[in-house]
Amino acid sequence: MTTDLVDLPPRFGMERSAFDKIGSRPAGELRLASTVILVRDAADGAEVFLLERAGEMAFAGGVSVFPGGGLDATDREALTEGLVDDAAADAAATTWATSAEGAAALLACAVRETFEETGVMLADVRPAEGVRERLVAREIGLRDVAERLAVDRLRPWARWITPEGMPRRYDTAFFLTTVPEGQEPDGATTEAVGAGWCAPARALREWEEGRRALMPPTWAVLTELAEAGDSADELLAAASRRRPRPVTPQFRPGDDRVGLAVPPHAFGTSSGAGQ
């Protein structure tokens, strides 16, 4: 291990033959995405909402993930349509090192994906019955659901970028928020076969015991959350101090296996908190 990289657990590696097979495919285009960490207080501390993706999904099948997904065309219109105000877009642009339009798109994507996958709407509106299904089917857009999104509820947590050379790549902004009063996530999406609240430490323990599958970004974020606080308020406060720096895992080829390593700022306060 070099001084400027931290090796991830060996389980995240792969056989050299599988790595060579992946490397023979065309590299995928980098796609922007948003992921939302829903948190709540429970009797034993803070919990997060996790979806178990269906095993037949082309990407991350059978893996536990936070709600989220890639940007679509309507997300990119969030600023011009007034779904995100100028001040919020400008602030987010500084956080995510992008344009106001790009930041507004990330925020809109976070709201839309959370609604589509959990039924939780981060806006001052309670959508009518059937609206969620129509949004998923792209019969309507977010502008048809709400006039203004409650993006002030979204706090930045992390930014992970899929390694170069992979056939499916994402540049993902991780946000953290609590569920608005009177709402409860349900995980009723065709992309998942299960969903529920779980303490970060418990999710990590289940992963260690082989009872839960995780991807490196989710594992790393859960590791940070388990150490960042015992309540939703503590996690929100921690998120308010963060300025996520991009984390791009690097492959570590060996004779028989290929491992993954990340820069130290992928964990804890070294990820840019207070900077």
Automatic annotation (TrEMBL):
Record's keyword terms, sorted: Hydrolase, Magnesium, Manganese, Metal-binding
InterPro entries: NUDIX_hydrolase-like_dom_sf (IPR015797), NUDIX_hydrolase_dom (IPR000086), NUDT19 (IPR039121)
UniProt keyword Iron present: no
Cofactor(s) needed for function: Mn(2+); Mg(2+)
Domain Nudix hydrolase: 29-227
Domain of life: Bacteria
Region named Disordered: 238-275
Annotated coiled-coil segments of the chain: none
Protein name: NUDIX domain-containing protein
